[in-house]
Amino acid sequence: MNPSFEVLMKDSYIMQDYMHIPKYFYEHLPESHSTAVLHYDGEPWFMEINMGKRRWFKDGWKYFVMNNNIKRGWLINFELVEITEFCVIFQLHVTGRGTLQDPVEIN
């Protein structure tokens, strides 16, 4: 089974230009890679990963959220599927379909 982490989307995650990666997941990310490819709904989404003391997806996260109409209440699973010479590849799995007016709460 591939390593993964989940994020329950909040308004702040939708509005910001970045998405933090949980610290417990850092051990799965190589120090030398700063590019990520998120595969979602049959499309690849390219973005940078901040590789400092804290790690997060940036330079592409907001574009991904806006173009996929990501809403509060969606649960996104980030599954690490491959580490290549140039990038880290994730497959995204989404559970729930909420709207800003009617969020899906997942326990």
From TrEMBL:
<keyword id="KW-0805">Transcription regulation</keyword>
<feature type="domain" description="TF-B3">
    <location>
        <begin position="4"/>
        <end position="94"/>
    </location>
</feature>
<dbReference type="Pfam" id="PF02362">
    <property type="entry name" value="B3"/>
</dbReference>
<dbReference type="InterPro" id="IPR015300">
    <property type="entry name" value="DNA-bd_pseudobarrel_sf"/>
</dbReference>
<keyword id="KW-0804">Transcription</keyword>
<dbReference type="GO" id="GO:0005634">
    <property type="term" value="C:nucleus"/>
</dbReference>
<dbReference type="InterPro" id="IPR003340">
    <property type="entry name" value="B3_DNA-bd"/>
</dbReference>
<keyword id="KW-0539">Nucleus</keyword>
<dbReference type="GO" id="GO:0003677">
    <property type="term" value="F:DNA binding"/>
</dbReference>
<keyword id="KW-0238">DNA-binding</keyword>
<protein>
    <recommendedName>
        <fullName>TF-B3 domain-containing protein</fullName>
    </recommendedName>
</protein>
